[in-house]
Amino acid sequence: MKMKKTRIMSIVMSAVLLFGMSACSSKSSDKKSDDRDEHVEEKDDTEEETTTTTTVAEISHRTPTGTCTSDKFNDYEDMSFFYNGKKYTLGVTKLSDMVNDGVQFSNADSDFEIVVEKQSSFYIGFSFDVIPYRSVGLTVANFTDADLPAKDCVISSFNLSAIRELPDGAVTYNFPELFTKDDLINSVGEPARSSEFDSNGSKYEILTYEQASEVYMGYRSYVYTFMDGVINTIEMSYLP
């Protein structure tokens, strides 16, 4: 009887030891498996990392090749610009004329249908790209005695900046497309008013030439902005 109890105890002890070893083996295996999984995940994260390099293109600025003169810098009878071989004149050219010529405006089609009341200006701008990120800005006016859709109104103002960044001949005028402040003053005299400011290490000077309208309270005007003495922005505004 005593011997039987001893054998039973041995069997029980063996089973306990075997179970314990199996459990330890399972935990160790699980831990190794977890460690392996974590290692793989870290490797995946590393593989997903990418390096992005940003290249900034240098901007070239044209410069005048010499001095120039023109009596058209303040010609209020023919306030025009040329684009794609076509001439467009403030107070004469309709917005629809430019659309028919194939000018690709950035505006929604619905903008061209907005009604402009008689004897009024429409100040929501129309624009088209000359080169990427450089565009001509226009407004239109209705000088008639009947309401009109914007497309049937005449262009009444023009604005173009960063002129020196544009290709030669991209947009031209009745006067030279590149000139200095001295060229302008030597050609048509001192402006009606002027101002200046500094920005990003450059000096900007704004010269305004104007003529009073015979019909409306206001002026026809040319506004020239120079950056370090060379033309940068041209603005024209028309009133009958």
Summarize the structure in short.
The chain has 240 residues and is of the alpha+beta class.
Structure description:
The protein has a 7-stranded antiparallel β-sheet, with no helix packed on it. It has a 3-stranded antiparallel β-sheet with strand order 2-1-8, with no helix packed on it. β4 and β5 form a beta hairpin. Residues 1-41 have low confidence and may be disordered. The protein contains 3 helices and 12 strands; from the N terminus they run αββαββββββαββββ. It has helices spanning 2-48, 95-100, 181-188; strands at 80-83, 86-89, 115-116, 120-131, 134-142, 148-149, 154-160, 171-173, 193-199, 202-212, 219-227, 230-237. The protein has a domain at 80-237. The protein has 240 residues and is of the alpha+beta class. The termini are far apart.
Question: Helicity, in percent?
Answer: 25-40%
By helix and strand content, what is the structural category?
A: alpha+beta
Number of helices in the DSSP assignment: 3
Summed over residues and divided by their number, the pLDDT gives a mean of: 84
Largest β sheet strand count, sense and barrel closure: 7 strands, antiparallel
- Count all strands and give the number: 12
Oligomer: single chain
**What is the percentage of strand-forming residues?**
25-35%
Give the radius of gyration: 38 Å
The separation of the N and C termini measures: 130 Å
Shape: globular
Element-level helix/strand string: HEEHEEEEEEHEEEE
